[in-house]
Amino acid sequence: MICERFAPSPTGLLHLGHAYSAMMAWDAACANGGEFLLRIEDTDKARCKREFENEIFTDLSWLGIRWPEPVLRQTRRMPAYQTALDELIALDLCYPCKCSRKDIEAALSAPQEGALYTYGPDGPIYPKICCNRSMTKRSTDDAVRLNMAKAIDYLGGKSTVNTLNYNELGHGKVEIIHLDADSLINACGDIVLARKDIGTSYHLAVVVDDAFQDITHVTRGADIAPATPIHRILQALLGLPTPNYRHHRLIRDENGKRLAKRDDARAIRLYRENGASPQDIRAMVGL
Ligand code: GLU
Q: CA-CA distance, 131 to 129, in Å (whole number)?
């Protein structure tokens, strides 16, 4: 049986792009007699709000989507993320990092580093300032990073990692995407596994929870596709199963810009209040 999920972060109102993800996942679950789960990704307490969470429930039910209760909330799952982090630390693949975004940008804009200034799924690729620090020296205001090169070695080296793959269903057929160890090192880099403020990161939490909830199909926007190799390597390191991935096209505004949470003009609530029907929303996103 397939199991789909929709995993919003309650940091704003759901817009057409979210509705597209949720309805696509829901439709796939219904068409295959599968399950659809809702997960609230609320680890970033500073940005997540209960009022947005309630709006998400209202919008999704109005769209005709149903899910089993209780909904999984990531803030209830911190011990599971800690266990996964401890596993990676025990494998000696992590280091503590004290760098702020400003420190990283300053290091990268130094003339000799300029050439390395590339962006990955989390922003600028981390220039490994703290990579020789030991986890035994972690202080309370340190984040924890994955040493990507060490992780690749642990899994058997580049050629082995290049055989790891996942199914991409987002382009109408099943494509097998292989990991590319060099691009994990150069285009993702030493990603954060645990932020100092929240004790986990999106990457670690999403991988742990997709496995915990037995998700077989992850349906989400193409903007997250560059992070999927990170998720795949974390699954390999933690011995977790790999779901199928369906990264769908992004819903854009009339200027071709992709919708963001601040695009309240396209919030589902507004359409609802202005008399649109769920069928109208489907038509707007081409479902
Ligand atoms: N929580 C993420 C978001 O709202 C989505 C994560 C995912 O689908 O993997 O953007």
A: 6
Instruction: Name the pTM for this structure.
Output: 0.95
Tell me the angle at which helices 16-31 and 278-285 cross, rounded to the nearest 10 degrees: 100
**CB of 9 sitting under 6 A from ligand 1:** yes
**What is the residue extent of each domain of the chain?**
1-76+251-287, 77-250
What per-residue confidence (pLDDT) applies to 82? 98
Count CA atoms closer than 13 A to 87's CA, side-chain side.
15
In whole angstroms, what is the distance from residue 133 CA to residue 51 CA? 41
Low-confidence residues of the chain: pLDDT under 70: 111-117, 261-263
End-to-end CA distance of the chain: 23
Q: Which of 264, 225, 228, 227 is nearest to 248 (CA)?
A: 225
- Ligand 1 within 6 A of CB of 261: no
Look at residue 72 in the predicted model and tell me its pLDDT.
98
Give residue 206 CA to ligand 1 midpoint distance, Å.
8
User: Atom of ligand 1 at shortest distance to CA of 206?
Assistant: 9
Ligand 1 centroid–CA 244 distance in Å is 15
**Same CATH fold assignment for domains 1-76+251-287 and 77-250:** yes
77-250: what CATH class? alpha beta
| pLDDT tens per residue, range 17-30 | 999 999 999 999 99
**Cβ 247 under 6 angstroms from ligand 1:** no
Q: What CATH number should be reported for the domain whose range is 1-76+251-287?
A: 3.40.50.620
From 3, 4, 9, 246, the mutation candidate for ligand 1 (largest count of ligand atoms within 8 A of CB) is: 9
What per-residue confidence (pLDDT) applies to 20?
97
Distance 241 CA to ligand 1 centre (A): 19
**Looking at residue 204, what is its pLDDT?**
98
Given this model, what pLDDT does residue 256 score?
81
Residue 41, ligand 1, Cβ within 6 A: yes
Predicted local confidence at residue 257, as pLDDT: 82
